[in-house]
Structures are given as C-alpha cells and as structure tokens.
Amino acid sequence: MSRLANQLVRAEKEEIARAIRTLLARPFLSADDEPAAFAVIRKRREPLTRWFDYFCGWRLVVEPREGYARLVKVGSRPAATRPARRRRAGGAPFDRRRYTLLCLCAAELLAAPVTTIGMLARRVARAAAVEAGVPAFDPVGADERAAFVDALKLLEQHGAITPTDGATDAYLGDEEAKVLYRVDTTRVIRLLAAPVPPSRLPGADTTALTLEVRYGGDEPTETQRALWVRHSLVRRLLDEPVVYRDELTPAQAAYAASPTGRRMIRRAAEEAGFVLEERAEGFLLVDTEATATDTRFPDDGSHAKVAALLLLDLLVTAGPLAAARLDEEAAELLRRFPHWAKAYRSEGGAARLAADALEVLALFGLARRTGDRVAALPAGARYRVDRGPADTEDA
Question: Quick one: CA torsion of 19, 20, 22, 24, rounded to 10 degrees?
C-alpha cells in the first residue's frame, strides 16, 4: 500500500474515532451548533452506525437534510448521575417539576408546527389539570414561569423549538411576553431514547422503559445472553469514569477476564481513540483530548470539585474516615481561605461543602460512603499528592 493510501486510512480511522467520542459527549448533535463535527459524522455515518451497534447495541440516527445526529444511548444501569441541567442559574440540575413540565411541553408541541409561548403555557396548564398525579401548572407564579422557561430552553438547545420572534427569557419577568416558536416535531420525538414508549408501559413500573427486546427479556437464548454481556460491559466502560471488577455482574466479570472479552475491550478502546488502563481492580478509558468528557476532574470550575481534590488526598493517605471528619476538614478549609466558597459560609455550610465534595468523588468513582464511613477507591490513588523529602522530614 502506498504512503498516500496509508495516510488516507489513518485519517479515516482518526475521524471515526473522534466522531465516536464526540457523539458520546453530545448524543444529540446539531449541524447549526457544530457544523464541522456534524460534517464528519455525516461523512462517516455508515462505519459509525456499525461501530455503535456492534460494541454497544446503540442506534445512531443521522439526518443530513434535517441537520442533526442522534445517538440513542440506553443505559445498562439507569441512574440520576447525569441530570438535565438548566441553561441559566449556573446550570443547576432539573428537579421533578422541570422534568414534568419538559414532558408536558414535548407532548403538546406535537400538535402544531408553530406556536407561541402563551399558547403553549395554556395547553400545558390544561394537560396538567387532567393528568392524574400531576400538579396544576399556573404561570402566574414566578417560580412556575422559571421552571417552564427552563424546560423550553432545554428544548431550544436540541433544536426542538426555535424562537423566530422574541426571546424565551422574557417570559421570566412577564407572563404576557410574546415569543413565537417554530416547532421541529421530528426532533421532539427523537428526544426520547427509551426503547419502550411511555404510552406502552404495561403498568406504573418505569423500569420497563429500558427493556430491549433484542436481548430476549426474561428468557434469552445463549446468543442473546452473550450479546447483552458484551454490550452492557462496553456501555459501562464508555459511560462511567471507572469500572471496578467487584461492581460487575458475574457474567460481565467472566467475559472481561476471558481472552475474547479482553480483545474486544481493547479493540473498542482503540477504535474509539481511548487509552485503556487495565488494573487488577478494574478498567479506565482515558480520552487524552477530552472530547468525550462531559465533566472533568480535577477542575477548578466549582468549589465542590476543589474541596473534593483536597479531601481525596486525605482519604487516600489516612482513610477510611468518618463522615464527620470530612465535615471538620471542610470547616478548616473555609477557615483557612476566608474569601473562598462564599456560597458555603452560612450555617451548616461546611457540612454541605463536604457532602457536595463527596458527591463529586462518588460520581467519578474515586470514593465510596458506606454507612458513616468514607473510603477512597483504587482510582483515587491517581490524585495522591506527591510529597517530596522535605515534606516527609517535616512530618
């Protein structure tokens, strides 16, 4: 093969790998927001579709004319560790009320290709009034309007609605604000990634939303069982910061330890452009370009993450510790740095800072709380402070 041909093959592999990581971070990607990334995904959609189906069992939908790509990610372990976040107010996570209004808005938007914010608010109010168990929606209240705006801003983010006259934020201060929307009903429908539509649930058990028939349900064949083990393991490796062997199911652990499983994991990591770190305790996929990363650690972007890094060093060197000890350490941090973390200066602030820091550590698989004890996990050793000889002598 000529040098030029080798370069073209290498360039194609690099494009596919980067596109995989891009879609992992942004499963609903719009050409308007990221034209360069979408151009690559459109160009390489066939190998990308095959990759996600083979390794993860995930479906990739690329709509060149509509200008978006949707990776339909189904979690092997549904969790609330990555909530929807507000497009304002510091990116706070959605609460139950905002999720409820998001669902009601999405349902009502399917009625027409054009609407106004006032018309949509009235339709949502009527829908909430007739839905059992759904609190009434009254846009007169400022809190209600804020929750409604947050739901709409999320829909805007994904291109499900586009304001053509006016701005959604205007509704925060004025119930009579005029905002005209163009509705993309196809994108509204694409937002839902559940294999089973909510309308087809047999009862109130929402776990049925993630039931995937390709794996055979309660009576899978041997082939379906093997397929599920491979897909569920790779999903976890791609979705979670670190995967510990003791957290795997017996079938997943056996597959990961087998020659076939190890080859499969290495191949998936290589083709997606990850560096695979395999230890006795588990696995870690490192994206050196941080393309697939939706949140980072270490990161000075929040007080909780800064405190988490400092508390983690204590847990690694002196842990396990009582949770109360972490509260004391957080209080000491606030005392040493009087102009830092002002949001935690009120009564009980130290305990809240320690709790938020511990939540960060748990999210990244670096620490675990059991009862009243907190222990660092093996991956936490990566962030241990390297104390030189002078530090050791002073100690």
Answer: 160
Q: pLDDT band for 393, please (50, 70, 90 cuts).
A: very low
Q: Is the pTM of this model over 0.70?
A: yes
Say how many Å lie between the first and final Cα of the chain, rounded. 61
Q: What is the dihedral of CA 53, 57, 60, 61, to 10 degrees?
A: 110
95 and 54 in a common domain: no
What span, in angstroms and rounded, lies between the C-alpha atoms of 169 and 33?
Answer: 20
- Asked if the bond preceding 135 is cis, omega within 30° of 0, the reply is no
The phi and psi torsions of 85 (rounded to 5 degrees) equal: -125, 150
| Model pLDDT for residues 198-238, shown as the tens digit of each residue | 777 776 667 777 888 888 887 889 999 999 999 999 999 99
Q: Is residue 391's pLDDT more than 70?
A: no
63 strand-pairing partners? 68
CA 84, 164, 142 angle in degrees (round to 5)? 50
> In CATH, what number is assigned to the domain containing residue 170?
1.10.10
Print the domain residue range for 386: 303-394
Q: Which of 194, 228, 191, 190 is nearest to 211 (CA)?
A: 194
